[in-house]
Design brief:
Length: 315
């Protein structure tokens, strides 16, 4: 990866789009960011406008786009969108549009893969040649590094760790359309569902703490976290159940890949007691020890990972 080259990293998610220039593994200059538009053409226009603005200031050498959804193995096109991006998003040919207009070589990668690469190169997993990054947010994403290389599968759509099934009972529908995926339990959405299911089993007259006079259909993740911080017993039970769901997936990943580390990122990762989770994993796995660690790149992981992958490929 050539030094002194400037890469533009663009992170496109269902909630927001962020972009910034990256040099020597660090963001240089300001980060442009806005809420993700509900129209796919507006997304493309914002990306093109941002490139024009930042290219004027930094003379960009390459561009790396980290996007929600599946990307082909050649890193040239989005081949599958996610439910929180607008209709027609996967039809946008970012590479063609950008290269035709700016003559700047462009790479496209799945956002979870980009995040994993960022943690591997400059984040929490530096020096770990075998590492997995799991994003615990509204959903569950993953990126896997084996012997220093991203695992992408035969089509480029591999490492969808959030869609490992946990049960055959068809209790929870996942956003992918299947049942009982890890994402349906270990995500922030799963956390909320677990809270409501557990509350519904408690008779109205027996409800205490945050459940007193509470319409349980309105329980949120924030309600449980707030109650947890106040020592509420029900909230402790919900949180412990969620940790067990998270642990189930981590055990499977550890047993399959035998990684040096598993990096947890995303908004829900900040509610994890890493010392406790490592103890639980050690007690349940019987191979070489895997360390569960908190991400360092966090919100900028997509920008950094996309930019560094583009530099590696083109420079």
């Amino acid at each position: 990866m050539a030094k002194d080259k400037i890469a533009l990293g663009i992170d496109i998610g269902g909630t927001k789009i962020s972009m910034a220039c990256v040099s020597d593994g660090e963001i240089t200059g300001s980060i442009l960011s806005r809420k993700t538009p509900s129209d796919s053409n507006e997304i493309l226009n914002y990306v093109l406008e941002g490139i024009e603005t930042l290219n004027y200031d930094f003379n960009i050498n390459v561009i790396g786009i980290a996007t929600a959804g599946a990307v082909n193995k050649e890193n040239t096109r989005i081949v599958g969108s996610t439910g929180n991006l607008p209709k027609g998003y996967s039809d946008i040919n970012f590479k063609e549009e950008i290269e035709n207009k700016f003559k700047i070589k462009t790479l496209i990668e799945n956002d979870a893969n980009a995040a994993a690469y960022a943690e591997f190169k400059i984040g929490a997993a530096i020096g770990h040649m075998n590492t997995i990054t799991v994003t615990l947010g509204t959903g569950v994403g993953g990126g896997i590094i084996v012997d220093g290389k991203l695992v992408r599968g035969k089509t480029g759509a591999g490492a969808e760790v959030g869609h490992m099934p946990l049960s055959w009972e068809k209790k929870r529908k996942c956003t992918c359309g299947d049942w009982d995926c890890w994402e349906a339990y270990a995500s922030g959405t799963g956390y909320r569902i677990t809270a409501r299911e557990m509350a519904a089993k408690i008779p109205f007259e027996a409800r205490t703490g945050i459940l007193i006079d509470k319409d349980i259909s309105t329980l949120t993740t924030h309600d449980i976290i707030a109650g947890l911080n106040q020592g509420d017993e029900f909230c402790k039970e919900v949180h412990n159940a969620w940790i067990e769901f998270v642990l189930m997936g981590l055990i499977s990943l550890t047993n399959i890949f035998d990684p040096d580390s598993i990096v947890l990122s995303g908004g829900m990762a900040k509610f994890v007691d890493f010392e406790d989770l490592n103890k639980r994993l050690d007690a349940r796995c019987h191979i070489a020890k895997t360390k569960i660690i908190h991400a360092k790149a966090e919100n900028n992981a997509g920008i950094l990972g996309g930019a560094m992958l583009a530099l590696e490929k083109f420079c």
